[in-house]
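From the pipeline queue, job 12 of 40. The input is one protein chain; the requested action is below.

Action: predict structure.
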Amino acid sequence: MHIISQLLQKSNSFSCDGKKVGRRIAAMGKDALWSKRSVQAIDVVVIHYMSAVERFPDAPFSMENILSIFCEYSVSAHYLIDREGVIFQLVPDIYKAWHAGPSIMPEPDNRQGVNEFSIGIELLATDTSGFTSTQYTSLSDLCAGIERAHKKKMAYVGHDQIAGKRAVAMGLRETCKVDPGPLFDWTGFFNKLEKQRKVSDDQLLM
């Protein structure tokens, strides 16, 4: 599994909207689009989708346009997977990415502030595009790698499960998140993930 570093910090020289990512972050008075975690244990992966379709309808999946959205709204995720399945790391796992916002885990967990103990993964997609087979493969590979690195099985939730109607009803947030939505194939993803887990187990026994 190959992961491309595209860290959202002020040393990033990639260009978006005619300016360097790093310069845009520095102009906000920030060193990076992440912060320290208040807890050490990471046990949740949150799956999202995003695109730049509203601002750039002709190039909704352009990396330049996607990075400009992160910079404009001062948000982040740990990883991003493009339509071809290429994995980009945006935030190191040890730090808290700003991907979930006000949020609460499903019952019976009920922990709030999911950013603190989670890893956020963005898939490039729109509400109508669905997801590519290579994205599912890369996602399962990445999640298996995260589990190996943290030596535990993770809980997997969608952004809509932690920042949807329940979070709004509780007064935690004003709007519902809908990603990754009904087009995301949870069963297919878990099947692929389980295969990757078995591959990892077999490699440990060799």
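Job complete. The longest strand covers residues 44-50.
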